[in-house]
Amino acid sequence: MGDRLYATWKRYADCFRTKTRDGGLYAYHYLSGLLRMKEGRNFANIGRETGMPEQNMQHFMSNSPWPGQKVCQRVQGEIAAKPGLERGGALLLDESADEKAGVNSVGAARQYNGRMGKVDVSQVGVFLAYANVSPSLPAPVWTWIDGEVFIPEHWFTEEMAPKRERLGIPQDREFATKVDLGWQMVQRAVGNGLPFEILCCDDLYGRSREFRRNLNAAGIMYMADVPINTQVYLTRPTVGVPAVEAGRPGRPPTRQQVLSDDKPVGVGDVFSLPDTVRQRVKVRSTERGEINDVFAVRRVWTDRDEAGVPITEEWLVIRQEADGKLNCSLNNGPVDSTVEELAWWKCQRYFAERANQDSKTEIGWDEFQAQKYRAWDHQLALTVLGSWFIAETKLDWAKESARDPELARQFEVEVLPMLSVASVRELLRAVMPLAQLTPKQATELVVKHLVNRTRSKKSRIKHRHDSS
């Protein structure tokens, strides 16, 4: 396992070189720290635990100008070249927020934090994951492949210019919505030659007509969640510019409208209509049981291509979960798509949650504390690399050591567990154990922390006095 991690790093070592320095060694130790340490994975702790100078590690992550996007691009290239991943892939677009104590980190502001379910000071990232759960694979694959920090619009005002400069936000960076950032990442994945069959996203992106229109124009199939109150038409309405009534004052109408008597309905109401096709579908077996829910599908007309004009025909796919909750999506797949195919595509977005959870809790994204834009970009790159290292390890392990069907029969289960992220990390800790501090080293570390806290307190007090 240790050799495997080193070999993975070697393939990417040139990504960490700049014109004046080679930061490859710092990248290797930082990556190994993310994967081996259980907690406290900040720059200083990772440097200390891996035997690297703490200040040098801080500089490598926060200031060194190596391009994080180069790592993401290479990961996507490796996925494209990996045998078995040529078909069946899905892109998974999602955002995730992290609570912050203040607004000094890039993009931090009072904004909606989905994890907390409320508006609070947080930093939001938009992430693109890749998943492939094709039945032909010995094990499912999911991994982060790209990401962008969301920077709220008020950050781009003239008053915020000094703060943008201090945090290293590129001068050419302009305000972009989360949907805009998602579309940029999808375009990069296409440009990198990453093979995938569908893009899945939540309703933040699905309710954007422009986003669905861009995907469709690019020939990308989507399964886009939409709010349950989204209005659709069950038959194709007649649209056009209303005729001018004789003697009517004012300007004649110029915009297209619905001319027929068709009335829209909410997608949540479509599920119970008698002419809606409903079918229980066993999507796949998992370690926790079957995904075997009722799915409702029907063709509907929406206003994807022209604002306010419902002339686009799409699939409406509704999943009724075990608790009775309805989850609705729009899909631009072929007209002859089967219920089974639509249900399969509908259930892919689950792996976005798995990729987010693994990257945050297992690979240390939750513990990221730096403020600068470049630090966020570099943390993303090494988290993506760590995520892909684990995904590839799990896939190769499953190829080399197939799960024994006889063992499954003995345990009376349909699917045996696969290697977990936690298992990979445990094996790495076994072959690459972290150094144990001596009493003297521990004492010196405590003293250092106390001194740093004292200096920080002095700096805060001085700042308050200067402000007053």
Descriptive account of the structure:
It contains 16 helices and 14 strands. By secondary structure, the protein is an alpha+beta fold. The strands form three sheets. Strands 1, 2, 3, 4, 5, 6, 11, 12, 13 and 14 form a ten-stranded mixed β-sheet that branches. A two-stranded antiparallel ribbon has the order 7-10. A hairpin with a 2-residue loop joins strand 11 and strand 12. The longest helix has 29 residues, at 439-467. The protein is globular. The chain starts with a helix and ends with a helix.
Keywords summarizing the entry:
two-stranded antiparallel ribbon, 468 residues, 14 strands, ten-stranded mixed β-sheet, 3 domains, globular, alpha+beta, single chain, 16 helices, 40% helix
Compact summary:
With 468 residues, the protein is an alpha+beta fold.
List the helices and strands and how they pair.
Elements lengths: L1 H11 L11 H13 L6 H7 L4 H9 L5 H14 L7 E11 L9 E5 L4 E15 L8 E9 L11 H6 L11 H14 L6 E4 L1 H4 L2 H9 L4 E5 L4 E2 L6 E2 L16 E2 L6 E2 H4 L6 E10 L2 E14 L9 E9 L5 E6 L7 H8 L3 H13 L10 H28 L4 H7 L9 H11 L7 H29 L1
Parallel strand pairs: 1-5, 5-6
Antiparallel strand pairs: 1-3, 2-3, 3-4, 6-14, 7-10, 8-9, 11-12, 12-13, 13-14
Helix pairs in contact: 1-2, 2-3, 2-13, 3-4, 5-13
Task: Please report which band the strand proportion falls in: under 5%, 5-15%, 15-25%, 25-35%, 35-45% or over 45%.
Answer: 15-25%
Total strands: the figure is 14
Taken from the alpha-carbon principal axes, the silhouette is globular
Please identify the structural class as seen in this structure.
Answer: alpha+beta
Number of helices: 16
The helix fraction, in percent, is: 25-40%
Distance between the termini: 57 Å
Number of domains: 3
Based on CA atoms alone, the radius of gyration comes out at 26 Å
Q: Uncertain segments of ≥5 residues (pLDDT<50)?
A: none
Mean pLDDT: 91
Largest sheet geometry? 10 strands, mixed
Order of helices and strands: HHHHHEEEEHHEHHEEEEEHEEEEHHHHHH
